[in-house]
Amino acid sequence: MSEIIVMLLIGLISWYLWEKSHRKTHAMLGGIDENRTFPHTKTWTLYHNEFSLCSKKTRVCLEELGIDYESHLIDLIETGAYENISRRFLEVNPSGLVPVLLHEGHPIYESHQQISYAAAHSGDAPLLVPEDIDAKQTMDYWVHKSSLIGDDPFVAMRETAGNAVPGLTLPIFAGMIAHIPVHRIFEGLLFHRIKQRAMFFLLLKLRGLAKVAQMKPLLKLINQSRDAMSTHMDELEFRLAQSEGKWIVGSQFTLADVGMMAIFDRLREGDWLDLFLTDERPNICSYWRELQLRPSYQNGVTNFSHPLVARATKKIQALKLSNPAFRSALLDDVTL
Fold first, then answer.
1. What is the rounded distance in angstroms from the CA atom of residue 71 to the CA atom of residue 85?
2. What is the largest CA-CA distance in the chain?
3. Domain boundary residue among 97, 120, 143?
């Protein structure tokens, strides 16, 4: 019996070492990599995920530009499996992150780089970048403001709204991961570049959505993210009040609005909109209504809704109604 156990251990270790050697992962610089070329059937190819915040942004941009693209949906653990750290996908992006945009087979990394590149190479498509220098500077500021930067988003949550979003997504993660088998999460512990993410999802799986508000470290992150987002929303309200049109840079819909559309939709998924869209922010309320009327919102966001996300949103809403302590932990003491 002991010999069988030893043989099994040797087999498992050998399998792990072989898999590890074929799943090489490391951070990637943003922008286009012209030294790498992947098979493609169209000029543009997008590797993306339905739930991914950055994937939403890139899809919306491509829709606004009228760019036809070859679509490859990649599962994240939240939507079912760690396909993003599979051998196949790591060849496309060794960092294991989505989205990845290909132009003529060349990969472009980081969504804020992807949307800028697509706008600059979209041919006769409608422009998403203003010609006026001052207007472009304003756009660039808000593109940065809506970007998710770095491996640890919580470090810069007060710098960008994009980095304030992950903390507000924690309850959704807990609701979604409840439907994912534990053994799939363990794959991340073995092969994900950032082990803390897999450990975090395992913790949410074991504790459940209702316990999120009882876990002080997680609740602290949620509260900090909530307050940071409130500050970003105040700044956006001021910007929209100064704008000479309904968009961030006036009458022209730009890349700045593309990024904010993704931010607002994530707030919708997490049932945070009632907190941030208040009478004190009338311009933001109008802005969100206008964003939802864009065909790109329907085609780039709504059409890619994921059932696990919808289920998690309903769970959060129901728990807020049935559990006052849960609601209070998430919403009290917000700085408006």
1. 18
2. 79
3. 120
In angstroms, the CA 284 to CA 233 distance is 8
Domain containing 302 equals 133-331
In this structure, the answer to whether residues 249 and 303 fall within a common structural domain is yes
CATH assignment at residue 299: 1.20.1050
User: Rounded CA gap, 246 and 286, in Å?
Assistant: 8
Instruction: Please give the tally of structural domains in the chain.
Output: 2
Residue 127 lies in a domain: no
Reported as a single tens digit per residue, the pLDDT across 48-60 is: 999 999 999 999 9
291 lies in the same domain as 255: yes
Residue 244 has what DSSP assignment?
Answer: S
Block means of pLDDT (10 residues each) for the chain, length 336 residues?
Answer: 78 84 91 96 98 98 97 97 96 97 98 97 84 96 95 90 96 96 94 90 93 90 96 98 97 97 98 96 98 98 97 96 91 55
300 and 218 inside one domain:
yes
Report yes or no: 215 and 209 within 8 Å, Cβ to Cβ: no
pTM, whole model, 2 decimals?
Answer: 0.94
Domain boundary among 85, 120, 155: 120
**Tokens 């270790």 sit at which residue?**
13
To 10 degrees, the CA torsion angle through 146, 223, 281, 242? -40
- Cβ–Cβ < 8 Å for 57, 115: yes
Is residue 38 assigned to a domain? yes
Summarize pLDDT for 237-288 with one digit per residue, the tens: 999 999 999 999 999 999 999 999 999 999 999 999 999 999 999 999 999 9
Token pair for 284: 């933001």
Predicted local distance difference test score (pLDDT) of residue 13: 83
Residues 67 and 145 in one domain: no
Burial label, 15 (beta-carbon count in 10 A; 0-12, 13-18, 19+): exposed
For 107-144, the DSSP string reads EEESHHHHHHHHHHT-TTSPP-S-SSHHHHHHHHHHHH
Question: Does residue 308 sit in helix, strand or coil?
Answer: helix
Question: By the 8 A CB rule, do 284 and 291 touch?
Answer: no
Phi, psi of 152 (to 5 degrees): -115, 95
25 in any annotated domain: yes
